[in-house]
């Protein structure tokens, strides 16, 4: 069981009405390009949401429909990693405990374990696979171990009311299944990653373990495409830039949440878009807009 501890003041701030805004007197250090790029997608009919926070002072640098709930695809797996990490910290099970994969857990798309011969792996290794490749098979095995209800209760205990992992990963979704793997609001997701960065999610050990798993992420195709990092090796600072992020991708959905730290500043960010994915050109425009957000972030932290 997870104790229902809620940060009421923080939730009030997240729920209070917000106007889209950006920093910068006289046009300096603002996010004009971000507003323009995401606004263009909005005019095309896409749902877009973004939240960017300065981690040194909590200043909201950018807020675009940051309280609306949108599908976030695999981003919701972060909530599973938090629950698994909290149980490891509490020694409810061992990181070396072995979990078996089964035919019921099998699912295609993202991940490496489906291509490996190993029938079983330790819990901590499964967390690393989810962080590195958003491994669907490892996700389902871990969910079978801890249960969706526990993940939901953990999220609620953190004060998250608009962000949830709704289901296990499925090949297809029928009428009796949750319509999305996960949903979230940009405001809550940017706050969550900031709290992980500060070691405030459950405790420092739990937060640090989750950040370690997520630092392995190899998907730098969205916002992080602007940072010039090696997708396979970016756990340490590179030209003064350090990134920890999680992405989610589905038909008509692109979502990324992360921490970007540079020589001058550190930010947490969340960007989600839901768009009509009926052509490659439309998808590429969505990815170009996310890269534009990344360029603004890079300029700010430098």
Write structural notes for this entry:
The protein is of the alpha+beta class and 302 residues long. It has helices spanning 8-15, 32-43, 77-89, 123-133, 136-146, 148-157, 186-197, 204-214, 280-301, and strands at 47-54, 60-64, 70-71, 98-100, 120-122, 164-165, 182-184, 242-250, 253-261, 266-274. A five-stranded antiparallel sheet has the order 2-1-10-9-8, sandwiched between helices. The model is unreliable at 1-6 and 13-28 (pLDDT under 50).
Can you lay out the helices and strands and say which pair or pack?
Blueprint: H1 8-15, H2 32-43, E1 47-54, E2 60-64, E3 70-71, H3 77-89, E4 98-100, E5 120-122, H4 123-133, H5 136-146, H6 148-157, E6 164-165, E7 182-184, H7 186-197, H8 204-214, E8 242-250, E9 253-261, E10 266-274, H9 280-301
Antiparallel strand pairs: 1-2, 1-10, 3-7, 4-5, 6-7, 8-9, 9-10
């Amino acid at each position: 069981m997870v104790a229902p501890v809620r940060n009421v003041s923080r939730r009030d701030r997240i729920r209070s009405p917000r106007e889209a805004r950006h920093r910068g007197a006289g046009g300096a250090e603002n996010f004009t390009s971000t507003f323009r790029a995401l606004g263009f997608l909005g005019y095309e009919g896409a749902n877009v949401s973004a939240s960017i926070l300065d981690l040194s002072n909590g200043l909201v640098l950018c807020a675009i429909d940051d309280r609306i709930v949108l599908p976030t695809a695999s981003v919701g797996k972060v909530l599973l990693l938090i629950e698994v990490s909290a149980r490891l910290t509490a020694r409810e099970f061992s990181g070396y405990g072995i979990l078996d994969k089964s035919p019921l857990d099998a699912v295609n798309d993202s991940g490496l374990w489906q291509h490996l011969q190993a029938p079983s792996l330790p819990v901590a290794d499964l967390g690393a696979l989810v962080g590195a490749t958003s491994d669907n098979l490892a996700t389902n095995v871990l969910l079978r171990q801890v249960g969706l209800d526990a993940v939901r209760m953990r999220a609620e205990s953190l004060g998250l009311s608009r962000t949830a992992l709704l289901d296990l990963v499925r090949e297809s979704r029928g009428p009796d299944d949750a319509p999305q793997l996960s949903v979230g609001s940009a405001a809550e997701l940017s706050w969550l990653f900031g709290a992980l960065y500060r070691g405030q999610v459950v405790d420092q050990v739990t937060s640090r373990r989750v950040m370690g798993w997520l630092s392995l992420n190899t998907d730098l195709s969205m916002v992080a495409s602007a940072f010039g990092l090696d997708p396979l090796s970016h756990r340490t600072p590179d030209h003064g830039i350090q990134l920890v992020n999680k992405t989610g991708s589905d038909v008509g959905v692109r979502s990324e949440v992360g921490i970007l730290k540079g020589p001058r500043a550190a930010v947490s960010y969340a960007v989600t878009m839901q768009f009509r994915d009926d052509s490659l050109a439309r998808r590429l425009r969505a990815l170009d807009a996310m890269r534009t957000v990344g360029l603004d972030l890079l300029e700010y932290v430098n």
